[in-house]
Design a protein that fits this description.
globular; L,D-transpeptidase catalytic domain-like
């Protein structure tokens, strides 16, 4: 009896070890148990902007921390496409005249895109302004900064779909790069969005860098693909469109807000132009996914 129990425990332990892969990749492909999200109420900011000059790093950082709350600091850094680790690497910051605590108040993306209403979920990444936006049925849910592909390693533009994800993933480009909250969008190329350092310009090796809170939110929000054991794709994940190009030789585009508070705004018509050529396929893949998920639930 003792030997029998011992073998059961050994078998269970081996199963747990196998389940915990090095990259902690998840194979959960169900849509069950996802919390229902409500469309956030967004109060758009309509004021101006000013410059916070950083002459002495230590003094400037102390002044910045003293003047603004933790939430305001996060919003300011996000508007400048940097994280705290890169504060000392910039010479100035763009700061709203009135700093709100909800970054959605400063969205450059339209709150509503009517032609996206039939699409359950959609993610856009704008190369020109280094930012992403997430929509549910045409309503903006969240936006945030990004650091996309560098001039040498540009991010591929166009339509793709989310596929597999991993809480931690070692980059295929460099095994010293640990990517947190990684969600792959181009499996063959190894391109995805994830948390990584945000320096205030496109610096990535083709991927789409995010602040950690945004990376984790998208990790939970977007859907994985559905694949069979032989890796045959039964259903795609969430549609993603990367669009536009970045002026690597010009000034940082968000500083144009100093002269024109709407300088980086993306119109509803501009987004429609990007996704409309792909809308038929997006809706086809969405319907296919619903059928696959319904079939799986019925078979349980």
């Amino acid at each position: 009896m003792t030997k029998h129990v011992h073998w059961i425990l050994v078998t269970l332990s081996m199963g747990l070890l196998i389940a915990c892969s090095e990259n902690r990749q998840t194979n959960d492909q169900t849509d069950v148990g996802k919390p229902e999200r409500k469309t956030p109420k967004i109060n758009l900011y309509s004021g101006g902007y000013k410059t916070f000059v950083i002459k002495d790093n230590d003094t400037a950082f102390k002044s910045f921390k003293k003047r603004y709350t933790a939430q305001q600091q996060h919003v300011i850094l996000a508007l400048n496409r940097i994280d705290f680790n890169n504060f000392n690497n910039v010479d100035s910051l763009l700061i709203p005249d009135s700093v709100q605590t909800d970054i959605n108040s400063y969205t450059p993306f339209p709150l509503t895109v009517k032609e996206l209403k039939p699409v359950d979920k959609m993610v856009f990444f704008s190369y020109p302004i280094q930012a992403f936006a997430a929509y549910e049925n045409g309503q903006l849910i969240r936006w945030g900064p990004s650091s996309m592909g560098s001039k040498k390693y540009p991010t591929k533009t166009g339509l793709s779909f989310t596929n597999w994800k991993a809480e931690e993933h070692v980059s295929t480009a460099d095994d010293e790069w640990l990517l947190r909250w990684n969600f792959n969008i181009r499996n063959k190329e190894g391109i995805g969005w994830h948390q990584y350092t945000m320096p205030g310009y496109p610096a990535s090796h083709s991927c789409l860098r995010l602040l950690e809170n945004d990376a984790k939110w998208l990790y939970d929000w977007a859907e994985q693909w559905v694949v069979e054991k032989d890796q045959h794709v039964l259903a795609e994940g969430t549609p993603v469109i990367v669009f536009g190009s970045y002026d690597y030789e010009g000034d940082k585009p968000w500083f144009k807000l100093l002269q024109d508070p709407k300088a980086t705004n993306i119109t509803e018509q501009q987004l429609v132009k990007e996704f409309k050529p792909h809308l038929e396929r997006i809706l086809q893949e969405q319907e296919k996914r619903k059928q696959v998920m319904a079939s799986r639930r019925d078979s349980i």
